[in-house]
Amino acid sequence: MGTKQATTTKIKLLAAATAISLSSLLSGCGDAEATNGEEEKKETVIAVPVEVATLANGSISSNYATTAVLEAKEEAFVVARASGIIEVIHVEEGDYVEKGQVLAQLEPKRYHLSLDRAKADLVGIEKELQKINKVYDKKLVSDDTYDKLNAQYQSAKATLALAELDLKEATIRAPISGFIAERNAKVGNLTESFQRAQMFHIVEQKELYGIVHLPEKELPKVHVDQKASLNMTALGDSLVTAYVERISPVVDPKTGTFKVTLRVPNQENMLKAGMFAQVKLNYDTRDNATLLPRRALLAIDDKVNVFIINDGKAEKVAVKVGYQEGEFVEILEGLNGSEQVVITGHQNLKDQAPVEIVNS
Questions:
Q1: 221 neighbors 243 (Cβ within 8 angstroms)
Q2: Is residue 22 part of a domain?
Q3: How wide is the angle at C-alpha 277 spanned by C-alphas 273 and 281, nearest 5°?
Q4: Last residue of a domain, one of 263, 286, 309
Q5: Are the C-beta atoms of residues 252 and 211 closer than 8 Å to each other?
Q6: Exposed/middle/buried for 272, CB within 10 Å: 0-12, 13-18, 19+?
Q7: Is 238 helix (H, G, I), strand (E, B) or coil?
Q8: Residue 33's closest CA among 43, 41, 44, 45?
Q9: CA 305 from centre of chain
Q10: What is the distance between the alpha carbons of residues 26 and 19, in angstroms, rounded to a whole number?
Q11: Where do runs of H (alpha helix) occur along 85-142?
Q12: Which of 265, 301, 327, 332 has fewest C-beta within 10 Å?
């Protein structure tokens, strides 16, 4: 009996030791798994994909952008100075005419007859005046009669000159050189002298004008012969160079702007009056400037910042910018020119965050 109890006690102690060992073993495995999980968690770091660009050297300008509608430097609305039936028209819309070229002809017969009558009246008075002059010196004709005849003679000369002028003005001529923009005259129509409806509209387009109105604060920056760039929408966004021709000396108190007239050369007649242009008035141009794409800039804490790549991490750098033109800005301070600057993926990027460059 004593032997059975001893054996039973040994079995219980062995079972308890086995349970304790198994419990320790399981506990040790659990700790190992937890440790490995924490290490893996620490090692799993997500790199932010970004695109980068390098800085470049080039020219950049300071511009003021506005719009303008091109105008003809010279234009003329041709009206008839004489009355009559339009007999012939010599030009059509789109034709180029020289100053003094015949545009149309009014029926001239009436004016020829008026001229012949004026000549005949003058000849008659001249003969009578010659007779009077022979006896006037002998005091055989009163001063009053002599003065009246002289007045008639001067009036006849003026009537003749007017008849000659009327006949001349029956031929409609171009007052300036340019293109026929409109032809309203038609053969057979009656035209009155100096009527409102113009017969022709002529525009000179070898040189055009662009009128822009700038804010008064820009006045010190504008000077005569300053360059401007015109983007012509109608010509496939082609660029045309213009120059400041005139600057108004006054500021409009209603709008706070002043008028600037641009001279636009047009020797090839590609531009037309009435075309719309996007204007960039060039204040200054800097060559060999350090340039960066504008989209790389971020406004953080009232400062202009960029992210550069340093050892696979994003580093926030404050920069000072100069001129801005199109898609580029000038970097004055903060970068030495050799950095890779983040241009895409930087909106939510944090300082020292790991990054992965996805563009070559």
A1: no
A2: no
A3: 120
A4: 286
A5: no
A6: middle
A7: strand
A8: 41
A9: 32
A10: 11
A11: 109-136
A12: 301
The alpha-helical segments, DSSP class H, found in 170-286 are: none
> What's the one-letter identity of residue 335?
L
Q: Which residues pair with 276 in a beta bridge?
A: 69
Helix (H) or strand (E) holding 325: strand 320-325
> What is the DSSP track for 128-190?
HHHHHHHHHTTT-S-HHHHHHHHHHHHHHHHHHHHHHHHHHHTEEE-SS-EEEEEE---TT-E
- Token pair 């219980």 is found at 12
- Both 82 and 153 in a single domain? yes
What is the Cα–Cα distance from 210 to 245, expressed in whole angstroms? Answer: 10
Do 166 and 232 share a domain, yes or no? no
Does the pTM of the predicted model rise above 0.90? no
List the chain pLDDT tens, one digit each, 360 residues. Answer: 444 444 444 444 434 444 444 444 344 444 444 445 445 444 566 888 989 999 999 999 888 899 999 999 889 999 998 899 999 999 999 999 999 999 999 999 999 999 999 999 999 988 888 878 777 666 667 777 778 888 988 999 999 999 999 999 999 999 999 999 999 999 998 888 887 778 999 999 889 999 999 999 999 989 999 999 999 988 888 899 999 999 999 999 999 999 999 999 998 888 999 999 999 998 888 898 999 999 999 987 788 999 999 888 999 999 999 998 889 999 999 998 888 999 998 888 888 899 888 886
Q: Which residues contact 136 (CB under 8 A, 6 or more apart)?
A: 146
Residues 310 and 349 in one domain: yes
Q: DSSP class of residue 320?
A: E
